[in-house]
Every structure is written in C-alpha cells, then in structure tokens.
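Next up, sample data:
>
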Amino acid sequence: MISFNPTAITFCGYLILMLGVGLFAWRYTKSFNDYILGGRRFGSFVTALSVGASDMSGWLLMGLPGAVFLHGISESWLAIGLIIGTYFNWRLVAARLRLYTERCQNALTLPDYLTKRFEDNSRVLSICFSLLILFFFTIYAASGMVAGARLFENTFQLDYQTALWLGAIATISYVFIGGFLAVSWTDTIQAALMCLALIVTPFAVMIDLGGASTTIEQVRAIDPNMLSLTTGQTVIGVLSLLAWGLGYFGQPHILVRFMAAKSVDVIPNARRVSILWMLFCLGGAVCVGFFGAAFFAQHSSVATSVIENPERVFIVLAQVLFNPWIAGVLMSAILSAVMSTLSCQLLVCSSTLTEDLYRAFIRPHAKVWELVWFGRAMVIAVALVAIYIAMDPTSKVLNLVSYAWAGFGASLGPVVLMSLWYKGMTRNGALAGMIVGGLTVVIWHHFAFFGLYEILPGFILSALTIFAVSRLDKKPSQSMLEAFDGVDLIAQKH
C-alpha cells in the first residue's frame, strides 16, 4: 500500500512535471536524428547542464555522501579527480568531437562516428563498440535502478521490489515518449534542482548544530582523522580515486551531449557553466556526508537507518531537517540525479541498438517511424535487463557505478581521445585498444590486484596498445588524414 504524505505528494508533482516535458518533447521529435540527438540544436546552457546532470547519477546524492560519512574528507579525492577529468574532457574532447561527428557524414552515435572516422567497411569496430556500450551501460543503468528504488522505498514506505519497478517506470516513460529532447530538457531542470539541494542541505545542518566551526569540532570529536585528506589513504588509494577523472573520456552518455551542441561556438561558455556547476554539486555532496556525521552523532535517535546504510544520509537529513513539503522538493533532487543519468543511458543503449545494429545490419532502408519505434522498444528492453540486475536489495550504488565507469573509461576513453588527437591512429589500433582496455578492467576487477582501481591500468594499457598497433599497421588513407587536418584546423580556433 502506497503511503501519501506532503513529501510524497511533492514528489509525485515532480514526476508529473517530468512526464509533461516528455509529452511536450514528443511534438518536436519528427526524425530519428531528433530522437537520439535532438537535431543538434542545443545552446551552451542546456548543453552544460545536460552534461552535468547526465554525469552525476544517484551516487552524487547517495554514494559520495555515504562514503564521506564513513571515512571523512579523504574520500573527496574522488570529487577532485572528477573535477579535473571534467575540465580536460571539455578542453580535449568537446569541440573536436562535435566537429568530427558532423564531418563524418553527420554521425549520430559514437560507434557510427568511429566507423566513418576509420573508414571501417567491415563495421567490426562499430560492433565491438556497441557490445561494450550495452554490457557496461546495463550495469550502469542497474545502479540508477537501485538508487531510484531506495528513494521510492523511503518516500512511499514500499518494499524494495515494488519501489524498483515504480522508479524504473518513472524514468522509462519520458525517455520512451520524448527521446533526446525530453532527456536534455529534463536534465536542465534536474541539474538546477540537484545543485539547489546540495547547497541548502549542508547549510541547514550547520544552522541546526550551531554554525560551521561547531559542526567541524563535533566531527573532530567523532574522529580527528575525518578532517584529514591523507589519513587512512595510501598512495594507491589516492591514485585510484583521482583516476575516476580518466573515465570521462569514454562515457557515451556524456560524449553524446557534445555531439548535440548547436555548434562548436557554444562549447567555451558551456564549459564554464558546467565546471561551476560541478564545483557546487561535488563540494555540496562532500559537505552533506561530512556534516551529516556530526548531525547523526548529535541526534542518535534518527540515525538508525543511516548507520544501517550510509547511502541514506541525504535522504534522512532532508526528512528530518525540513518541512515535509520542502523535503519533497529535496528528495526530488535525488530522483533528478537518478533519472537524468539513467534516462541518457537508456537512450544511448537504444540508439546503439537501433542505429549501429538494427539499421546497419538488419534494416538498412528502414523508414524513420520504424527506427523511432524500434528505438523506443529498445529503451524498454534494456531497462528490463537493468531491473533484473538491480533485483538484489543489498546492491550498493557506488560499487555498480565504479565498475561500469571503469569499463567505459578504459575501453572507450583512449579510443575516443586518441581518435581526435592522434593523426596516425588506425582501425586496428582502435579495435585492439578497446579489447585490451575492456579485458583489463574485467580481469583486474575480479582479482583486485594491489587494491588499485581497474580504470588506471586499463586506460594505460589501452592507450599503449592503440599506439603500438597503429605504428605497426599500414598508414591511414589520404582521405582520413585530410579529414583529421580539416577538423584540427577549425578546432585550434576554439
């Protein structure tokens, strides 16, 4: 039985708003290009916030605050790594990828871009890229399903399985209806809501506890080591957390946002907005976990559920500190984080299955309406697999995210980055790099060598493989070299 209260009612209002945006986007979705890239017509503000929102999933308001709650600000190395990675992704990838995908016969997906970039008539590169997207994105989407289920579980007092299905349906609905336009427009709203929640909540905790200095002293009383960036961390631990930043170069749900920008001219301003948003959000998430430790030490009567699962720290703070109506808005921020990332992941999987497998191999002359509806069917199919993975109620959001993040970062990151900057890169080099990066992540994750995060060895080995194989391979064709020079000439001006 669903329990309704002011928080739940506000929550439902937010869901209705998102569905309304999806229905509005339906009117502007007239082609397959509109469905998977929004017709490439987004300005700097929407591009920036869409990149941020699609990046920051449920772990921003659940996983990261939970880690800081347990171990202190030493966990903020992760946030530092992400900020650095975001900056260089905008600097090194955004403009060049936007230019190159348009030059490559208006490539609509990343596999399609690589196929045309390397003139791969066999399409083996596209198939390999697509399989990696489907494998790791399904795991990534499962993390969103888990986060959404936790939220519905706490908001409506539901059992985990029911909450899982409700959270999934909420996201699937507007993606199914409105495609990329709906995802990007809702991302803009969701990014603003996430930022607001992560600024307001730490301030509310500080006011409740008597100010910033008092709060910090209370944390110090719990454990002085929680105030140290280095205590409890090893060199390998710090490197592992910073290495998260490498993942940005290979995240398809973020990279497609660059491809959808109206023009390369919007990139510089979008970069500034995106970095500022990241600083506020990640700083706020760290503060929620850090100040939350002091709050629940002081209010042990409401700390039970947080001690059981530290990833609930933001949820409980919102419920305890704020009026139920305001709490509903703040709880919607968690749903925003979940839905913004999950929606884009489902859409990227759908577009990959439709454009790079269905149209490429099964129905090359399929009509527009057929592609759009096949894409919608694939949204549901991928979501069902992710729901199955998320059925385990003991799943940790951050654990699922870290594995998928490493998989993309190591297998696809070096390929995308070097395809934009390394003139001598070949098809075989890209293929070998993908395989080596992906296998390294799977093997390293299983055996956990040295306690080092698998993305770092995977990224390094993939990049070295690309360079070595490309050097041994025959040189790129003249048309490939000319295309690279054309993009490079324009990109240098931005």
Q: What stands out?
A: The mean pLDDT is 83. The radius of gyration is 22 Å. Residues 160-209 form the longest helix (50 residues). Residues 6-403 form a domain with the Sodium/glucose cotransporter fold (CATH 1.20.1730.10).
